[in-house]
Hints:
The protein is α+β, with helices and mostly antiparallel strands and 698 residues long. The protein has five domains: 30-112; 122-227, CATH 2.40.50; 240-511, no CATH class; 519-554, no CATH class; 560-690, no CATH class. It contains 25 helices and 17 strands. It is globular and about 90 Å long.
Amino acid sequence: MVASEDADARGCPAQPYAGPSWRGRLSGELTAASLQGCRDLLLWAPLALGTGVGLWFSWLSDPTTGSYLAAVACLACALAVRRWGPQVLWFAALLVALANAGFLAAGLRAAHVDAPVLGFRFYGAVEGRVLAVERTRDDRMRLLVDRVQLGGVGVAQTPHRVRISLHGDQSHLALRPGLRVMTTAHLMPPLGPAMPEGFDFRRFAYFQKLGAVGYARGPVMLVAPPQDTAQLAAHRLRSYLAQGVRAHIDGQPGAMAAAILTGDRSGLSAHSNQIMRDANIFHVVAISGLHVGLLVSVVFVSLRWGLAALEWPALRMPARKIAAVVALLAASGYLWVSGAQVSTQRAWVMAAIMLVAILLDRRALSLRNVALAAVVILLLTPEALLGPGFQLSFAATTALIVGFGQWTQIARAMPAPVRAVLGVAVSSLIAGLATAPLTAAVFHRFAQYGFVANLVAVPVMGLVVMPAGVLSAILAPVGLAAPALWLLGVGTGWLLGVAEWVAALPGAVRMVAAPDGLTVPCLAVGAYLLVLGRWPVKLCGGVIGGAAFALWALHAPPALTVALEATQVGLMTNNGRSLSKNGGEFIASVWLAADGDRATLPEAASRPAWTGPAAQRAARWNNRRIVHLSGKGAAMRARRLCKDNALLIVAAEMDGPVSGCDLWDRGRLSRTGAVSWSAQGRLTTTAQITGKRRWTAP
């Protein structure tokens, strides 16, 4: 009534209060969303940091000092907005600050690992200290060597680390970490991608300080015995333990047990590795979150239940926290003995955060803890973002936390035995669904019975293999480990049997064509938004994820591909890619896998498309003649055949300019890297994709 009288007094008609305008409501909602984002900043931090890291790696040239100063300035401005700016901008400002922090972290890491890379092909004496003894996919021994000396090469040009595959018989010397050895080897710089959008081994090697790779056909000779240094103590202990396990457990079950307990996979045969990949259970021998998680669970649960069963400690001691401390020590020892690989470091960080949460009376398994682990890893090793291990482990862990949150509500009414059995099945299903798109995109294969294999194998891993391994480690010092090792061998034998059975099933592996380069980032961002966002953000995540699958479906393999040194040429036909030569097995396997093709090298080389002798193969594509020349006199023949705008690929380096054709010799390919053409004739070079970075040229 009063309001009406006031309105009449002003000469205005009385109006009911309509509330704030739509602008005011929108501003209020955005401010509330910004404040909520600030409260959940830890959950969004990995996405922001990863954006900055991804931006750093996507640049086509090394960022300049000015770029880093600009990143520092952006970070400072973003923090200033958070401190003094309007609340509606706080969350966006913090995301910008984190993105710039990721950019700077990647630059610092690259500068920290910078090391010499061999700039030429080398043949001669190589001397160094053995860091690790590995096994290649074709069952050859391989040495990782540091403190390298190359005959006739100066210290400034000598790589810090080299990797040498051993082709000859080395049974005269028991190779183990710490030995200083010498051999005569062929070395070369780490090679670039086998195809323009393929995996860049040079980048991987750069962050491992690996400056040369090669092989040796002669014997490896001992120069000096191992020196007693703390740096190699873990390597020697790992080798000693692996040999002890293999001595007590015969055959491949023993080699698998050694791999699980120590990380030493040198005893596993190529066949064992392949069947585990085909069955999608190779993760049981690649030490990662599964192993560390099972170890921590076994130690934590056993100690907690043991203390709870005793009246005095149960009443007077914090059993849960004591178990967490012992489990953390066990995980740390496992990290040290297994070689502290990147995947193991990632798993240890996650386990440590969860165990510390128990000590602080916080929830151990939560998305915040997973996010914190991702933040730590991205800041310390930003290159992990590009690795499948980081992507797969965090995808599986996040999906399990989110999925099991829903599952526990459903399973409450179930009987305990049914809940336990279905829990294993549900966990395998959730992890499999979460990682299947990434596995297919990265490895170009999909194990169609992987769910079945994991459903049968993972419980044995958790209930038999890991407890037996822990028990054998406890009993070994008093000489009573034999029963536990026997049980461990039974468990690993079961795992190999499951892998053999599943891999032999018809259609066990389905090949998948490689996606577009934007597919994996879009999948990751889309899934991230779907998990963390509210409905408008979830909708954006769904759209981005759908776009990723659309890009994948529309992406076509290249019609023509040329290898880095012109050793192989692949032409797509109606029957699949036809190879110009029955050679270059590694490059051919990469190309065929990216096509989603299970053909072997001889099968692909026998496909109709190419004609002529081995040194002069010819084909036609897009009404154009293609000639692949190799062997003696290739350069001379190229001059005669360079006409009619033919496409000539020459496995030699031309002495001078040649006209009349589009010629690709080794000199030109050394500047461009591997090249490919689309069906429409669009050329793509490796240099266009990778740019000129620290690792692209020695």
